[in-house]
Amino acid sequence: MIAVIKVAGQQYKVEKDQTLYVPRLEGKAGDAVDLEVLLADANGSLSTGSSIKTTVQAEIVDQVKGDTVIAYKQKRRKGFHKKKGHRTAYTKIKVTSIA
């Protein structure tokens, strides 16, 4: 069974026992999460919109940070430069069931 879920405005195609990184979700490792289902495929029969009776359960595995992203600006011959960086927060989840 395959489902398309929506997390923080992004869509992911998931299967049972799949692990993936999504934008940060509230909770700590071991917490269960219910995810919004947009489309579900059960043995060739698609269901979308209000006809979806499928739920996706996931477990939070870890809260992690992504790689450092540097934003650098400079104006030539002016002595102006600005450097800022950030690390985006992600949540590693494991899909436990699609029912």
Number of domains: 1
Oligomer: single chain
Net shape: elongated
Classify the secondary structure makeup into a structural class. mainly beta
Q: Helical content, roughly?
A: under 10%
Q: Quick check: average pLDDT?
A: 93
Number of strands: 7
Could you tell me the radius of gyration in angstroms? 19 Å
SSE order, as H and E? Answer: EEEEEEE
Largest sheet: 7 strands, antiparallel
Question: What can you see in these coordinates?
Answer:
The chain has 99 residues and is mainly β. The chain has one domain (2-98). It has no helices and seven strands. Strands 1, 2, 3, 4, 5, 6 and 7 form a seven-stranded antiparallel β-sheet that branches. The radius of gyration is 19 Å and the shape is elongated. The relative contact order is 0.31. The mean pLDDT is 93.
Which descriptors would you attach to this protein?
99 residues; mainly beta; seven-stranded antiparallel sheet; 0% helix; 72% strand
Task: Give a nutshell description of this structure.
By secondary structure, the chain is an all-beta fold. Helix content is 0%, strand content 72%.
Strand and helix layout:
Elements: E1 2-7, E2 10-15, E3 19-23, E4 32-42, E5 45-48, E6 56-75, E7 80-98
Antiparallel strand pairs: 1-2, 1-4, 3-7, 4-5, 4-6, 6-7
